[in-house]
Write the structure tokens for this entry.
Amino acid sequence: MQPESYLTDDVINEFSKTLELFDLSPSDSRLFTILFLNHQPMTLDEMSQTTGKSKTSVNTGIRNLSDLNLVNQVWKKGVRKDLYTTTDDLFQRFMHYYLDKWLSHTSMQKQSLSSIEKKISDRPQGELIETKVKQMLIFHKHLEKAFIQLKTTCQEINDDDRIS
Amino acid sequence: MQPESYLTDDVINEFSKTLELFDLSPSDSRLFTILFLNHQPMTLDEMSQTTGKSKTSVNTGIRNLSDLNLVNQVWKKGVRKDLYTTTDDLFQRFMHYYLDKWLSHTSMQKQSLSSIEKKISDRPQGELIETKVKQMLIFHKHLEKAFIQLKTTCQEINDDDRIS
DNA sequence: TTTTACATACAGTTTAAACTGTACAAACAA
DNA sequence: TTGTTTGTACAGTTTAAACTGTATGTAAAA
């Protein structure tokens, strides 16, 4: 890959900032963006060269992104090196990962707090803490509701997109 | 403040984990939770004691939370020390802060990318990069749409809450 | 089989963030 | 005014994360 033009570099920097909102590290965001901008799948060595990071570093970065299901490994006959690529459905992928994160977390926390609530009411020590835990539970219920709705919204956006 | 019971400590740990989803640091999340659980406004010294962190550390933590509009400073006559407290409208506060963050960011990035797009089309070098930037713009438009809808949802949740 | 090319595990290093203690400044009390 | 009490700026330290280079293992090529 040829050295980046300063304009391409701007694109990388700007887009990476957005990806960081999804709780990706700056490095991982940058790596993803570079991979996304590339017209074809890249090898670890190529990514190492383009990012200016060591191969090991790129390897763990790609592993992170793969675990979140944000990049894909592809095979090309004749090529021995591992090849990675992104897909064009940026929005769907990122939102799916993000919503999953929120929803699985809120679900777990609701359980944890319920269980704590029980223990507290068994040995009635403080009214105060009990009230607070109730508020926390409501907070989580609201969160869950909001993000379930967001999921629906994303589905709609995706559908609209497919039609046009 | 008396030493925390292990049960209270569980509550703090669990709830803090949720707050971290809002991009608060573990320390700030913990600080907020402690403040929220306390039945009355707390001073820096109290928070320092309860969190086990230095006063300076608590000070910067509170400053962070204040900047995000998640805690309030209150005055009590006769008390010289600064007093801080949280409010009961957890959901509204956090979502407001969070949505603002997303929406202001996406709005800015849309502008940045548009501006870059212009520069690219002026000096037509690569078709590829142009296409990619267009995709990024669509990505941001989708994000904006989704989070604006989320804002509406939160408003509704909040309204429902106020009635009951 | 041996040799080569690659991914990855691991130990050590660098870098950045969080935290602490001291020092200073502002507000209040006497 | 002077003496106290409090918040905060700052320099230095600790801690955790990111990164690197070497070493190892594995799969393909010869």
